[in-house]
Every structure is written in structure tokens, then in C-alpha cells.
Amino acid sequence: MVTEAPASALGYLWLVPAAPFAAFLVIGLLTRKWRLLSAAISILAMGLSFMFALGAFFSQLRLGILPRIAQFSWFDTGTLHAPAGLLLDPLSAVMLVVVTTVGLLVQIYSLGYMAGEKGLSRYYAYMSLFCASMLGLVLSGNFLQLFVFWELVGLCSYLLIGFWYDRDAPAFAAKKAFVTTRLGDLGFLVGVVMLVTQAGSFDFAEVARKMSVEAWDPKWTGFAALLLFCGAIGKSAQIPLHVWLPDAMEGPTPVSALIHAATMVAAGVFMVARLFVFFSASPDTLAMVAQVGAVTAFFAATIALVQDDLKRVLAYSTISQLGYMMLALGVGSVTAGMFHLWTHAFFKALLFLCAGAVIHAVRTNDMREMGGLGKSMPWTAATFAIGALALAGIFPLSGFFSKEMIITAAGAKSGFLATLALATAACTGFYAGRAFFLTFLGSSRSKAAPHETPWVMRWPLVILAGLSVCAGWWSGGFGAFVFFGAPEESSLHFLSSFFAMLPALAGLGFAWMVYVNGSPSPDRLARTFAPIYTLLKRRYFVDEGYNWLIDRVVMGFSRALAWFDRNVVDGAVNGVAWLARSGGAVLRILQTGQVQHYAMAVFGGVVLLILLARLAGAG
Amino acid sequence: MERLFIELKSSLIDLAAWFGVPAGWLPLLSAFLSAATIMAAAPVIMMYQTWFERKVVGRFQDRYGPNRVGPFGLFQPIADGVKALQKEDLVPAKADKLLHFLAPALVVVPTFMLFLFVPWGRGMVAADIDTGLLFFFAFAGLQAPIIVTAGWAPRNKFSVLGGLRAAAQVLSYGVPMAISAVAVVMAAGSLSSSAIVEAQGDNWFILTPWGAFAFVIFFVCVVAETKRTPFDMPEAESELVAGFHTEYSGLKFALFFMAEYMGSFAACMLATTLFLGGWSGPEFLPSWAIFMAKSGVLFFVMVWFRGTLPRLRIDQMLGLAWKFLFPLSLVTMVAEGLWYFLRTDGRMAGAILWPLAILAVSYWILSVVMMREFVRGNKPRGKQDAW
Amino acid sequence: MPGEIAFGVIVVLTLGAALAAVLSRNLLRSALALMFCLLGVAGLFLMQGAEFLSAVQLLVYVGGIAVLIVFAVALLERAGEPLAASLNKLVPAAVAVGAALTMLLVVGLWRSVIAESPPASPGVKDIGTALLNQYLVPFEALSVLLLAALVGALLIARDTGKEG
Amino acid sequence: MFSVTAYAVVSAILFGIGVFGAVARRHAVAVLISIELMLAAAALNFVSFSRLHPAQQAVSGQVFAIFIIAVAAAETLVALALVFSLHRSLKTAHLERFNLLKW
User: Fold this and answer.
1) Rounded to 5 degrees, what angle do the CA atoms B36, B39, B43 make?
2) Please, what are the domains in chain D?
3) What's the predicted TM-score (pTM) here?
4) Contacts of B139 in chain C (CB under 8 A)
């Protein structure tokens, strides 16, 4: 971020976030009544946004790594400079493509999935706003804008998770998502304030420049970065704030796809990558990031092993994959982290949309009631298989390349982290296989008559499947495009790479044995490892722990506060109100309602004024 | 003959100056002399109006009219006056005594004032001021509150109704009357009555296309303003006994009667001034004689109306004022403007045709609308207004 | 001298009528007194050379407003409103304030030296020119106001048909 | 012609009488009458003081008086309509009864 390309080169980039936002306004204000028109407006706007994002991406690719910035001074208080504008560099260019591609496909897919939904206009308005906020976040060049869009993304995920607000579960899930991420956002805000007040500017480049010029204490910067990381923990659902993401499955499935692949959770990873310069200031912070990432990846993967709900499996897999990304960032490889984000976006969107198609067909989330769907839904089964293999990291699908990059990067730093990553890869292979086998193979356990998806839902799957296959082949160029510090060479050594693929293959094979061959049978496994099984099934009792904490500690404290509020604070307020009311009761005797009394007062006042003026004039 | 009255007045003033009246008082004396003349002449004119009317209406109804007192009944009005003086002054028990006494007296005063502002002859305007016409209308309008008071004073329901009707009528017809006079004011460029007469010369305003319309409107309004048939709703015997002057007898009644007749003659004089060239005419006759003759002819038309036309209903009458005469008088104003500018442009044919065209078209439209209204209005439709 | 007499007569008429208007127990008499008072004011206009204004005062105020008020009184009275007890309890205060205001104004006027310049009485033409040039916008606004008042008054006073 | 002061004094007295009536009279129409008195006093002041200026400004005073008269006409019209309307619903025109908006 030292040299800049001319700002005018940004051209119509502002349209990328502006088009969906305009769609949101138009739908919200004008076309609420015409649902299909709303959908068309939203998709058209997203398509426009997609075109311009592609244009920006390729122009950036041609230009190389130079960031382009178009900023104007929003306000300036003297000690604090707040610009507003757009920042385009390889990082945001990649994110633009991810967000607009997934956003567009999800919106098209929603046409089929949400058909007949009463609140379709509302749905598309939120979707547009969601994409617009994420795009704005990606293009932010300063802390203020970043924070605003960060919160907008949170708001939109709240609105969309709670889309069916008339049911209890989505309403609670939405609240949970909002409150949990808010916990992380508090840290984020403090971190932002620390950095911004120290530098006297919101501008990323300016803060970074101040940091190096004024040689800030690395410990201090590291602490600020750690606080920033809190935000990422919340948004990207890292341990211990991961609890909202599985619950967020209560939203419509396309929303889950969007949240998991491109918008909400990617924001945390993106933020860390964007502000990596501050993280890199302190090795301790980086280590912390890596540890949190690795642990999250492993624990989420183990939980995913035993879940019965198809969407929950995918949700925990997302948490796990996000852990991978954090791990990559923590070991210092922005390239690996972002590349995994890039590939993961496509195959996780694909998996969710497939899951949506399946759920659409069998009207349940429970894998125990599925099975044998491969015959009736060949397209979905095929694309899901591609997604699952990519998720497991099987050559030559995209997941292989990105995961490989991460494991290599982790291995260079610490053997423990690499081991954890490999163990996670094994688990990933197992649950990916398990999900596919339980859903599409075997005999049908479904009560409904499943059917293939309509074409509006099928084509996004096919396109995403293609992307899931191909996205990884760019691994060589990616390292020269998105990096921190020095360009990274493609570190693919075939032998070691295939060695790294072994755990995943093993996991897949084991899944095949258990769920297709039936020996050992799942039930026996569960009985044999009963304590572990229960622990995993109950997700390490994290939710229960939180509930206990909140019920006992927080609520007790709150009750004390409530007593104080009711008796002391309210007492004071009521006292003031009582004073005002009784004062009014006395004063209102003056208001007789007789016009002539008022007239009398007016004329009397005139007389007094004249007298006063005379006296003043005489004196 | 022409300057008879003017010379008479100036010689009297000279005489007073010779007797040592200070110069400051002489204008007052002049005003006093004019006022005295008017206060003497107007009642005499009024008396012979009544005689004239009775004679003419008698002819219309195929009878002689008054012919007992004096030759051709010429002394009949004097006999009537004596009779009125002798009659008992009846005051209803519950009447507001003060107002009952004041109203008849007050009603005559503004009527006398009217004569101040018309040019009786060349140079014979009692109060020759810039805004004479405005004052004429102002004093004509002054009658309305007094008549309401007169109707209210005896606390008789019919009287009140008569008074309210009279006020409504005077107010309503005052509007088109004033507006049609505005057309004349625009043409003459002055509000002074003598200036209006001089502006006409021998080209009377009634001979212009807009003037003809304006004159008809004005004259109809004048008839209504003075509450004469067919617009004598306020004193419609069949409905309200005798309207606002039901409870007045003797001299008080005579005063109302006098105010009415004097008012109608003053209105005729104003119509003459505005539209008929005032005192201008053949040179061998004195200007005041010409003026009186023209006004007399107009009064004859009024009598003619009375002998010919039946009475209107009150709502029809007010409708005529607001829905027909008022818009038409506005059109007259526009037509006058057209006439004026086309004439100064030198386009004489256009100056006549265009005003005629727009007046004819609006007349036609308004009369169609009005006829509809009348036909519909004849069927009872909801509640009629209380007067 | 005749001027002084005329002024005195008119002033006495005006103020006397004003007092009568305010004090009379009978509303119709009040209205009639108002009419006389306004006539007197028109006379004062005339004496100051404001002929046109005097005529307008007569035409609009006396011939229009006074008629309206008299009309209203006759109609209201017909509905059986007792006209007695015309003054309320505020009389002493009202007298005090009215008198104080008048005294202050008169004293103020008495003390101030008003520089008289040669009187100029604008004619009808001057006023007309001023109205249609310098004061055109207020003039038009006034016509709109009058129209609005007319329509508004009709709307407010219209009998909704429920009661007689 | 008399001094402006004389007319102004007359106007002041007229205004004072109007104030008294507006405050002390019971009947709405009587109050209206008193207000007319005050307005007339104001118009009289405009005309009187306009005499202190040369013709160009003197017109302004008279024009203002005309405006006052016109506004008074509008005001009377609406006020009477209100009185009629209130009289219909409350069966009285006494101002002290019109306290529906009290408190």
C-alpha cells in the first residue's frame, strides 16, 4: 500500500455496491407489492454488479498488485481525518468476484427455492442489501467505512436468518447470531478506536504508515490486533463464539449458502487479511490466531462427524474450514488463507445449494430420513459429489490445492498445527463422505416422493460445480497476485502433497465402509465410543455452558441491577414526572379556556412593555 | 337658461360676502346652498314621481289614475302628504323604541346624499370630487344595514324577513351594478361623474357594444336595488304583509316611501350619467332640462316594468344576480378592454365585432344555464332557505 | 373655523358611536353604532384628503362589513339568544387596561414632536398605480385571501342539515 | 387640516375603546365589533401618519389602510361563519361558553 495507481482508473467501480443497494431501495420503497418484479430487479442489479466486479478483477489482474484508491474527505475534525471512498487491490478484487458470483447464483437459485414465498420482495430486498453491504465492506479503504459495512452485514444476516420471523426457532436463531457476533464486535470496535485515535486517521494506509514511521510498540499493536481478531472470531464463528452459525441454519437455505460462502463469515477472514499489517506486527498475536484457527478447525470437524442434520453437518464443516483459513493467516500466509476462502466459497455454496435442493425435495433436514436420492436426483447427486470431494480435498478438485497450501504453510511453522490440520482433513473426509452416502446412496428412507430440481435451481449448481472443480487450478497465479510481504511460490510438491491427501482418502474410505458396506455399523461405533459420541453429539456442551453462565451469573447480576433500576433510577424519574405533573396541575388553572382572559393578558402585557420601555428610556 | 341655477347660487354667495361673511365660511355656505336645493327639489320630484306612476300604471290597467285633486289630479301627492302627517304614529309594544324612531329618519339620509354626486346639468354637481361615483355606490349600500335595522326594530317576524331580504338583495345586486359601472369608469378614465359625462360627449356609452350590455345589466340591478317590481320581494304583500315597513305608519311610513322613490330617481339619474351622456344633448335646451328628461324617460321604463312584469321568487332573484348578471358584468369589463385597445389600434370593425361576439356567446351560455336552473328550481328540491 | 367645527363634530360622532357600540346592551344597537363610528372614521379620512380611502371605507366597511354584522345579529337574535347581561366579569380589568393603553399612547404622542411636512394627498390614480405596480403581489395575495375567506366561511357556516 | 397628533390621539382613544370591548363584552359578535373598532383605529393611524411623507410614500400609507380594510372584511366573514357554526352546536354565542379546548 505504498504506491498507488491513478484513482480515475476505478471508473464505474462504485456501481458494484451501489447497484444492489439501489435495488434494495427500489424494492423496499416501490415494488413491494410485485414480488416477481422485485426478484427481477434484485437479480438484474446483482448481474450488473457481477459484470463490473469481473471488469474490476481483470483490470486489476492486468495492472498487477498496485492498489487503486479513490477517496474524498468525508469529515475532518482536526485531530481525526475520516475519508470515504473505494479501495481496489488484489485482495478486494478476488473478494468482489467471490461475492458477486455466489450472490448472483444464489439469487437466481432462490427464484426456484423461494417460489411462492409471501415475503419474496422482502427476501430480495434483504439479499440485495446483504450483497451491497458485503461489497461495500470489501471495497472499504478506511476503518470507519469498514466498521459501518461490517455492522450492516451483521444486520442483514440477522434479518435473513430471522426471515421467517413468525416462527420461534428462526427468530431465536437470528437473535442469537446478532448478539453473539455483537460480543466480538465490541472487541473489534475497541481495537479500531485504539488504532484510529493513535494515528489520527481512519485511513488504512495512513494508520499503517504512522505505525511504521512512529515505530509503535509491537505489543501494543499486537493487542489492538487481537481485539480486532475478536471481531473476526464473532463474524467467522471461531471458538468460542461459533455457536450462532449452526443455529443460523434456521434461515432459508440459499441464505445459509450466501452467509457461509461469501458474505457474513468471509468478512472476518477478509478483515484479518485486509488488516494483516497490524497482525504481523506481533508474532504472539499471529500465534494466537493460528491456534484459535487450528483448534476451531479440529473441534468443528469432530462435531460434524456425528450430526444428523444435513445442514448442520455443512455448518460445522464451514466453521472447520474457516478455522483452516484462520490457521493459514495465523501462520503468516495470506495467500493460503485467501485462496482457501476463494475455493471454499464455491464448493460450500455448491454444497449448501445442493442441500437446499434435497431439502426442497424431501421436506426434511434429517439425513436419517433421506437416502437413495441419487436415482431420483442425478444432477443434484453429481454436483454434491463434486462439492463433497472438493471439501475433502481430493485431487484435482479445488479444495485439494488450497488445503494443501495451508498444510504446507502450517507445517513450515509448527508441527503441532500441521498435525491438527491433517487430523482435521481426515475428519473432513469422513463427514463429507458420510453426508453424501447417507443422502444419496443406499435405500430410500424418505416419506416424500423426491424429484429433480427445476432448471433455475439446477443451473447454479452446475456452474458452481464447474467452479469448484476449476477454481483450484489457479493456485500458481494466486500466490503472485494475493500475498503479504513477498509473492509466494507455488509450493506444490507432488509427493508430499499426495501424502497430505492420504488422511482425507482414509476418512472417505472409512465412511464408505461404515455407511455403504455397513461394517462396522454406525450404531456399534456409537456404542463403542459412547462417551466421545455423546460429547460430540452434544457439541462439547458449549451451548449448555453458555446457558449456565448466562442463567446464573449474568442473570443474577442483572436482577440486582434491575432492582436498582426500578427503585432508585425509576424513582428519581418518577419523582421528576410527579413534580412536573403537580406543577402543571397548579399552572393549568391559568389556562381558563376563555379567549378574553388571554386577550386581557396580551393587552396587559403590551401596557407593561410600553411602561418598561418608557422607564428604560427615561433612565 | 343654461346657467340659471349656477348664477343664482354665485349671486347669493356674493351677497353673503357683501354682508360681511368671512371668506373661510363661504365654501360652507356654498355647500349649504346646494344641499338646501337638493333637499327641496328631491321631495318635489318624488311627489310627482308617485303621481306619474299612478297615472301611467292606471293607463296600463285601462283606468284613469288620480284625477280628483286638482287638474289631472296634479295635487294628489300633496293631499297624500297631508294625510300621512295626520295619521296616528303606531309603535308596537315590544318594539325597540329608539331604533323604531331612528330607522325611518336614517333611511332617508343616504338617499339624499345620492343626489350630491350626480351632475344635474353642466357644472351642476353638488360635490364634484374625484371619487364621486364610488361615493354614490357607498351611500346606496348604506341603505342595507338601516333597512335590516328598520325591519328588526318592531320585533315582527315578517319585518325581519323583509329586512333580511332587502339587505341580501341590495348586497347581491350591488356587485354586478358596480362592476358594470367599472366598465364605464375604464372607458372614461375617471370616477368623477362630471368627467364621465364629458368623456362621452355625443358618443353615449350605450351606443357601444359593451355599453349596451352594461346598461341593461346596470338598469336591471338598479331596479332591484330600489326594490321595485319585479324585484320587490322585501315588501311582497302576499308573503310578508308589507315587508320591513309593515309596522310603520304615518310619517314614518311616508319617509320609507320617500326614500324608495327618491332612490329610484337618483338611480335613474346615475344611469343617465353613466350611459346616456348625462346632460349632453341639443344645444337649444338647457343641460339640466335634458338631464331631467332623460332620467324621466328611464323612470318611465321602471313604471313600465311595474305595469308589465310579475314578481320573481326570492331564490330566483338572488340566483339571477349571482349566476347571470355577475358573470356577464365581468365579461362586459373584458369586452370594454377589447373595445378600447382595438379602437386605439384603429381597427374599428374589430372593436365592435369582437366585444359583441364574446358578449353574445357568454350571454347565450349563461342564459342556457340559467334557464336550466329555473326549470329545475321550480320543482321543490330539499329545504328552501328560510327567507 | 368651519374645519375645526367639522373636525369636532366628526370626532364626537366617532368616539361617541364607538362608546355606544361597546357599551350598548342591545347587539343591534351596537352594530348600528359601529356603523356610525366607521362613518366617522370615513369622515376623518376625508378630512385628511384621503377621498378614495374614505369611499372605500364606506363601501366596504359600512356597506359590507357592517351589513354582515347587522345581518348576523338579526339572524342570531331570531334564534332566541338573550341579549341581556352583555358584559362579563372582566369589566374593571378591561377598563384599567384600555384606559392605561390609551393614556400611554396619548402621553407618548403628546411628548413626541412630529415634524409636519407639506401635506400631500395622493389621488385615485396614484393609489391605483401603486396597487398595481409597487404593491401588486400583496394585492393579488389579498384577493386570494378574500377568496379563501369566502369559501372557508361558506364551508364553516354551511348547515350540515341535521338541525334547523 | 389638523395636525397628525390630533388624529393620532383620536385613533388611540378609539383603540382603547376597542380593547375594552374586546375584553369585556360577552357576545362573540360584540367582541367582533370591538375588534373592528381597533382595526379602524389602526387604519386611521396609517392614513394620518402617511401625511408626514411626500406623495410617493403617502400612497403607501393609504394602500396599507386599504389592505387593512380588506383583511378586516375577510376576518369578519370567517369570524361570523364561526359564530354561526358554534351557535348551531352550542345554542349560544357567548364567548365564555366556548371553552371546549380547555385543558
Assistant:
1) 150
2) 4-97 (1.10.287.3510)
3) 0.57
4) 58
